[in-house]
Specification:
The complex is a heterotetramer, with 2 copies of chain A (345 residues), 1 copy of chain B (326 residues) and 1 copy of chain C (494 residues).
Chain A (H helix, E strand, L loop, with lengths): L4 H51 L7 H26 L7 H12 L2 H4 L3 H25 L4 H19 L5 E2 L6 H8 L1 E2 L2 E2 H19 L1 H11 L1 H6 L4 H27 L1 E2 L7 H11 L11 H21 L3 H18 L10
Antiparallel strand pairs in A: 1-4, 2-3
Helix pairs in contact in A: 1-13, 1-14, 2-8, 2-9, 2-11, 2-12, 2-13, 3-5, 3-6, 3-11, 5-6, 5-11, 7-11, 8-9, 9-11, 12-13, 13-14
Chain B lengths: L29 E6 L6 H15 L4 E5 L6 H13 L4 E4 L4 H13 L4 E4 L11 E4 L2 H19 L6 E5 L5 H15 L7 E4 L4 H14 L5 E4 L2 H14 L5 E6 L2 H9 L4 E6 L4 H14 L14 E3 L4 E3 L3 H4 L7
Parallel strand pairs in B: 1-2, 1-3, 3-4, 4-5, 5-11, 6-7, 6-8, 8-9, 9-10
Antiparallel strand pairs in B: 10-12
Chain C lengths: L1 E10 L2 E11 L4 E6 L5 H8 L7 E6 L2 E2 L5 H7 L1 E4 L11 H5 L6 E2 L2 E2 L1 H14 L16 H13 L5 E5 L7 H16 L3 E5 L3 H7 L2 E6 L2 E8 L5 H9 L18 E10 L3 E9 L3 E5 L6 H8 L6 E6 L2 E2 L4 H6 L2 E4 L3 H5 L6 H6 L7 E2 L2 E2 L1 H15 L15 H11 L7 E5 L7 H16 L3 E5 L3 H7 L2 E6 L2 E7 L5 H9 L5
Parallel strand pairs in C: 3-10, 3-11, 6-9, 9-10, 15-22, 15-23, 18-21, 21-22
Antiparallel strand pairs in C: 1-2, 1-4, 4-5, 7-8, 11-12, 13-14, 13-16, 16-17, 19-20, 23-24
Classes of the chains: A mainly alpha (345), B alpha/beta (326), C alpha/beta (494).
Bound molecules: adenosine-5'-triphosphate (2 copies), beta-D-ribopyranose (RIP) and magnesium ion (2 copies).
The site of one magnesium ion has 4 residues of chain C, from α9.
């Protein structure tokens, strides 16, 4: 090892060339896989669209129906973005629906409503973020298992929402606070404002996840928390922030659900947790953390929403719908099964 | 229950007496859209079936039901799709009247008359006609039955237990209020109340613990005959029979219990799903611009409240054909 | 006894095996040599039924054998110790050893018999102190390796395959392992042995097969007589020896790290030392002597009493502060403690210094990729595609990715725990040069290695640890392997 | 390294001694932890009992109330045993409640009832096991993520149950099939038969998990599937069997729910999945698999059941119940938090 540098460099060069060829193969291979995953989801979506076109040529492909699908997806869509972060970060948040309900109730109490729509919106966001922060503190610093901590939050937030609202549905006072409702009724280019809010959240989520240190750390914390810790990441703080982020999304979703239903209610968002998690997983994010994409989650969600829409258009009865839904889920996932191979036992 | 060998006719909708003025004669073709919560229990299932059966009777009606769902957000979408399909009239049983108010308003503004079934929209601009049961009245009927029975027995300071349906529904709160108000006239009040979720299993669970909480009960009102099956099973399992029980809604099963005379269930106060049959008929009439032939007016009235009747051993025969399968 | 011919195994984008031949005789120790990524592990996984070869034939005792699954391989009489420890953390030692072939009757486990048998095997391995009831997840790495060996022995196999069994062992444990191997071969069992430590090959091996880039380049070389230079050049295609870069002639600079009275109950006590800029300080000691713990305590990853000063200022407790103030730790268990297996090589390399690539949290991906590519090239990570998930790299190349993480600029102190575990000879020399180069550029290095020659060859100064206390501190140049061994084992005091 | 053996022995001996000391510490530590875990649950239970004794001295500690609590716990308890296996094995089963509902409906169809109570029971068990087997096949061989596969089963099984029952509640025909109902009404030593069934399932579950190769392998498959595969375990087959076992438990639970409610219904078992999983996790089983105990799950479940019982005895309304429940869950888990450290980020 008297003069190591030159020969090594040389060898590296030679190997470099050989490996370059390999890399090209591999890359195309990998890209293929990457696309395939989303391809599977796209194929599933395309199939659903085809079914729609065939069964309801008149109603399905209309602009108004597509807008309606997007409006339907918006609320839970915003929540799904937060859920994607939490799940990639190795956690789970069962409290999303309940926290959204609590935020909607808090924002529509008479006291809050008296301050006008901006304060209502801010209130919803703060309540959501606050609840998320409590989840985060319990999990990151109190060392509770995420499943249990957020289950407790689910239960408690629903109870609190019921108490606050005296189990009644609280109307958004119009016209004073009509600005909230106008998110649903005002359209720009034919599309209700809340769809834009949804789109904005998705884009922001994508950017944060893919282009910032926060996003990168989320993958690290979920993929290997010990490695993340030893690499100098404050894993606890990060974990806490992930739940706060999820809560923030619930707060935004609360504004959207107030707009759509013109109410705050303790019953809002029932079982959203299951739907959101299902969308995230269908989208290819692993429940074990460390992997996943926002894009996949949103595609997964759109598949679910489209299924419902198709059922509505075709007037299927509930029981048959459920059976069909089960089958469709299985087929959609089988279409993208290859990517999940690693996970399977 | 569907599996009673002696089960009643396939539709609980009773054959109507023909209308006096030939309102049943085929008229202008109309499309009636229908949206209701998910048919996950007997009463709602009966609503959906009655609506469909009522529509089938008319050759001039095209019936368009949409996906029943318990998610408000989805029901809004469902109604939106019916508006987009430009139906001639809508029958809506909202999951929550307040939350669906806006979309009903949209329909009305789009020129589609809305028949509001059961749970009320707060805004009268949102619907053309409301038809539904009298929830407060139901509580009152149950309260009077209980009050009278206990007075007869000469009980003072009775233990009265109430098992509600879904706590967050306004109709539950109305029922409880009516019950309390009626009891007050006898100087009684409710000792304990718990909500079950309208299902057999939750009824059973809640009743099991309530029976433990109160070793001696004088009267029990259960808001809903669907969950009542579970409540009765819990009572039998505990071997309790010291009290009077009153049901709610008027299921076939409850009526048979009452008829047997050997059950704690001595009465039920009606909240009949036949209202759905009537709602579809009203929607047809409104869409065709007709009035109700037994009334003097040329148009269908703005609201119709069904009376809550009390079914006991004495009058149960008369009600059996109206009982719905839970 | 075992004949493999023309084995080909293709992974997406990589031809890991490209026509490999292997002949193993009964009762011999057959060594498999090759650089990181040469295909050694893949070859034995083909044998173990984990991978199905795309081409080629395997015959065992004259009959065609094609293990389609691990179960088949075990039935054929092949037992394997895998490179990456594959134990079930939640189960006990005994349960791990007999997993899949439990002592059972009608499905009911005879736990006492299992424990008894486990104790026997562990005793045979010279480790009576490992208790059959202990939970495997709580054992240190070396003990886990022993359990892995015990599992392989528990099978009564006719062929035992060992993939770098010594990487997690210190030399005394290795001697133990060799004793067992000799016992086995005496009974006619064949052993396929993989290691990057050539001196081990010489000591235990009978014949050697050398792999290079997925091909066999030499078959059946005599293990004892083939000159090292020839083996190395077969493996690498060039002539490198186990040589350490020259120590710097410049005197070390300012004190970077100062440790005063560091103690952690049950691990180490009263440890004080310092490391200067440009200096490499090595920690020598037995497995379990507390070296890793000291590193972790300095790094703030483990609670300890005492003071740690960096550049004269006390470091706030916690890894985050340690990293911010310029430390970096390359931990000893790469898979569990360092790598994000599903992420790209780039993401793994930059994980410790993300803020350096970002502005207001926004990552400059171009700069990030360029830096990762530079380091991959410097350390000769193969294949040199930095967008590949780390999972698809061979063990040694994964180790290089771990080191690369802290070679990104801005470190003042590097803590290296077994930095060359599983790294091949050529790359090792390369790593030594890199480490020395870093030191020459003024970085302080604290090094732990279970290979005494490595500690002595690479360090400027050596601390010898025994049972958690420093028993000697001195210039590395004046120590030799024997003296160090004597010290760390005491009993034969110098 | 010329003559390594003697000194090594010696050294090993020396370390052996040292390690022995460490071992003693470690062991007592471990035992402590093991006990502590259950201790935490016992403390939580004891606290609840104390609250019960103080608030309702008359009603709470009566034999009949305790029997009531056990009867309430029996149905979901049986399901929890199955869920414990699945979760230790690294999976999750969201379909439990729906599968129980389907089994109860199938067993109470007129056609089935005409063959008498034994056939009804067998039918319930077969339907449950069959549905579990489908889950298992989809997950083990179809490589679907467990969350998705069992979510699809949840949806489809509910739909099928609704279709079969025409959304009606199906009564168990008495007196013909009264034998089913008598599981709930017949008492031996003052305890209803179904509590014995529950106890039997718990004991059998414990034996299988702790004393058979199937149990050991369940831990291995959940803890490190790759290691299990390398050890020659047929991981797929095992995984499939785990879900079938869970389905079997749902079938048994269906018999119990028929006995208790005298009905089969598509609404039975609503949200059981969340309750069962929560009980398992509170009991100390990790959602990531490889660890856990039946005992813990059952204690966790009893805590839940007792909470509801206490609330109803004290006439608390459901909203307050929910809030209190959330808090109690957090406290119960904090009591045993130490054990979960490993999991925490
Ligand atoms: N599962 C896999 N997918 C893709 N490529 C793989 C996979 N496993 C191994 N490889 C590639 O196959 C080649 C051979 O790897 P292998 O692990 O056999 O090397 P090795 O000789 O054991 O090296 P080391 O000494 O570092 O352990 C490497 O290029 C590696 O990246
Ligand atoms: N076989 C064993 N059983 C139980 N505890 C052990 C065993 N071996 C080591 N330990 C404990 O582990 C601690 C030190 O282990 P550690 O692995 O950190 O030491 P090390 O010097 O870094 O060795 P290594 O070469 O493995 O890195 C000590 O507290 C020791 O008691
Ligand atoms: O669903 C409810 C039903 O169960 C109850 O009995 O009456 C009112 C309905 O809305
Ligand atoms: Mg290898
Ligand atoms: Mg170490």
């Amino acid at each position: 090892m008297s003069e190591p540098t030159p020969p090594v460099r040389q060898a590296a060069g030679a190997r470099g060339a050989q490996a370059d060829a390999a890399r090209t193969n591999l890359l195309s291979g990998l890209r293929g896989v990457g696309e395939l995953r989303h391809l599977g989801l796209f194929v599933a979506l395309a199939l659903l669209v085809a079914v729609g076109l065939v069964t309801r040529p008149d109603a399905f492909a209309t602009a108004s129906n597509l807008v309606s699908v997007l409006s339907l997806a918006a609320t839970i869509g915003v929540i799904t973005v937060g859920a994607t972060f939490v799940i990639i970060g190795g956690g789970i948040d069962l409290s999303v629906g309940a926290v959204m309900a609590l935020a909607s109730v808090w924002a529509t109490t008479l006291a809050t409503q008296s301050y006008g729509p901006v304060v209502m919106a801010v209130c919803a966001v703060l309540v959501g973020t606050g609840a998320g922060l409590v989840n985060g503190l319990l999990i990151a610093y109190g060392r509770l298992v995420p499943f249990i901590a957020t289950l407790a939050m689910l239960v408690a937030a629903r109870g609190l929402a019921q108490r606050m609202s005296d189990r009644k549905t609280q109307l958004v006072q119009q016209p004073d606070n009509g600005a909230i409702v106008s998110l649903s009724t005002t359209r720009v280019l034919g599309i209700p404002l809340l769809v834009y809010v949804f789109a904005l959240v998705v884009v922001l989520g994508w950017v944060v996840l893919n282009r910032t240190t926060f996003g990168r750390r989320t993958y690290a914390v979920g993929g290997n928390p010990e490695a993340a810790r030893l690499a100098g990441i404050d894993v606890r703080r990060h974990t806490m922030l992930l739940y706060a982020l999820s809560g923030l999304c619930c707060g935004i979703a609360a504004i959207l659900i107030m707009a759509r239903t013109t109410t705050g209610s303790s019953t809002h968002g029932d079982l959203y947790e299951l739907d959101a998690i299902a969308a995230v997983i269908i989208g290819g994010t692993l429940l074990t953390g460390g992997r996943g994409t926002i894009m996949g989650s949103i595609l997964g969600l759109l598949i679910f929403t489209l299924i419902t829409n198709l059922f509505i258009l075709n007037g299927l009865n509930t029981s048959d719908q459920l059976i069909a839904k089960g089958l469709i889920i299985v087929v959609a996932v089988l279409l993208q099964r290859r990517n999940l191979k690693e996970r399977a036992p | 229950t569907s599996n009673e060998p002696a089960a009643a006719p396939s539709s609980a909708a009773p054959a109507p007496a023909p209308a006096a003025s030939g309102n049943d004669q085929p008229g202008e073709k109309v499309v009636i859209g229908f949206s209701a919560p998910a048919a996950d229990h007997g009463w709602i299932a009966a609503i959906a079936k009655n609506a469909e059966a009522a529509a089938k009777r008319y050759s001039d009606v095209e019936f368009k039901p949409v996906e029943p769902t318990n998610d408000i957000n989805q029901q809004i979408s469902a109604v939106e799709s019916l508006i987009a399909a430009k139906v001639s009239a809508l029958v809506i049983l909202p999951n929550d009247g307040q939350q669906l108010n806006q979309v009903a308003l949209q329909a009305t503004q789009a020129g589609i008359p809305v028949v509001n079934l059961d749970r009320v929209f707060p805004d009268k601009l949102a619907y053309r006609t409301w038809i539904g049961g009298d929830n407060y009245g139901m509580g009152v009927a149950a309260g009077h039955f209980v009050g009278r029975k206990l007075k007869e027995k000469g009980v003072s300071d009775p233990v009265i237990v109430e098992i509600q349906g879904i706590a967050t529904l306004p109709l539950t709160q109305d029922r409880s209020k009516g019950f309390a108000d009626a009891l007050k006239t006898y100087g009684f009040s409710v000792t304990a109340k718990q909500d079950a979720k309208f299902t057999v299993e939750t009824g059973n669970q809640v009743a099991t613990s309530l029976l433990q909480a109160h070793k001696k009960i004088d009267a029990l009102w259960n808001h809903d005959d669907d969950q009542g099956v579970g409540v009765l099973a819990a009572i039998k399992e505990a071997g309790r029979n010291e009290f009077v029980m009153v049901g709610g809604a008027g299921s076939l099963n409850a009526m048979k219990e009452i008829q047997s005379g050997s059950s704690v269930l001595q009465a039920t106060v009606t909240y009949s799903p036949t209202m759905a049959s009537s709602a579809v008929r009203l929607a047809r009439l409104i869409a065709q611009g007709k009035g109700m032939s037994d009334l003097v007016e040329n148009q269908v009235p703005q609201s119709i409240t069904l009376a809550s009747e009390t079914i006991t051993k004495e009058n149960v025969e008369k009600y059996l054909p109206l009982g719905f399968e839970s | 006894m075992l004949v493999m011919r023309g084995i080909v195994k293709q992974f997406p984008g990589v031809r890991a095996l490209d026509g490999v031949d292997l002949d193993v005789r009964a009762g011999e120790v057959h060594c498999l040599l090759g650089q990181n990524g040469a295909g050694k592990s893949t070859l034995i996984k083909v044998l173990a039924g984990v991978h199905q070869p795309d081409e080629g034939t395997i015959t065992f005792n004259g009959a065609e054998a094609r293990p389609g699954s691990p179960i088949d391989a075990i039935r054929l009489g092949f037992a394997t110790i895998y490179q990456e420890l594959d134990l079930v953390d939640g189960l006990s030692v005994a349960e791990n050893i007999f997993l899949g072939h439990e002592h059972a009757r009608l499905g009911f486990v005879d736990r006492a018999a299992g424990r008894r048998a486990a104790r026997e095997v562990l005793e045979r391995l010279g480790h009576p102190e490992i208790r059959p009831n202990a939970e495997v997840g709580r054992l240190p790495p070396a003990a886990k390796q022993v359990v892995s060996m015990a599992r392989a022995l528990s099978h009564d196999a006719r062929l035992i395959i060992m993939d770098e069994p010594s990487a997690a062992l210190a030399h005394d444990e290795v001697a133990n392992l060799f004793r067992i191997i000799r016992e086995l071969t005496a009974q006619g069992v064949a052993v396929v042995y993989i290691s990057h430590r050539l001196e081990e090959i010489r000591e235990i091996g009978d014949r050697v097969t050398v792999l290079k880039d997925g091909r066999t380049v030499a078959v059946g070389l005599p293990a004892r007589d083939t000159p090292t230079s020839r083996v190395v050049s077969l493996m690498t295609g060039r002539d490198v020896e186990y040589v350490f870069p020259p120590r710097s002639s410049r005197p070390p600079g300012e004190e970077v790290l100062r440790v005063e009275g560091l103690s952690a109950p049950g691990a180490f006590s009263g440890v004080s030392f310092s490391v200067r800029a440009g200096e490499i300080v090595g920690l020598a000691g037995l497995v379990g002597s507390g070296r890793s713990e000291i590193l972790e305590a300095v790094y703030g990853a483990r609670r300890a009493a005492g003071r740690v000063l960096l550049g004269g200022r006390p470091v706030r407790r916690g890894v985050t502060h340690a990293v911010r103030s310029g430390m970096g730790l390359a931990p000893e268990e790469r898979k569990a403690q360092a790598l994000l297996l599903d992420q790209s090589v780039t993401a793994n390399i930059t994980l410790g210094s993300l803020p350096g690539f970002a502005r207001f949290g926004w990552i400059d991906r171009g700069r990030e990729r360029a830096e990762a590519a530079r380091l991959a090239d410097l350390l000769d990570i193969r294949p040199p595609d930095t967008e590949r998930p780390v999972r698809t790299l061979s063990g040694g190349n994964q180790q290089k990715a771990v080191l690369a993480r802290w070679l990104v600029g801005g470190r003042r102190l590097l803590l290296l725990d077994e930095p060359t575990r599983g790294v091949d000879v050529g790359a090792r020399a390369e790593l030594y040069a890199v480490i020395r180069d870093l030191a020459d550029r003024g970085i302080a290095v604290l090094l732990v290695s279970s290979e005494v020659p490595e500690v002595l060859g690479l360090s400027d100064r050596v601390l010898v640890l025994r049972e958690g206390t420093v028993i000697h501190e001195g210039d590395a140049a004046v120590l030799d392997e024997h003296r160090v061994l004597d010290m760390i084992m005491e009993g034969r005091a110098a």
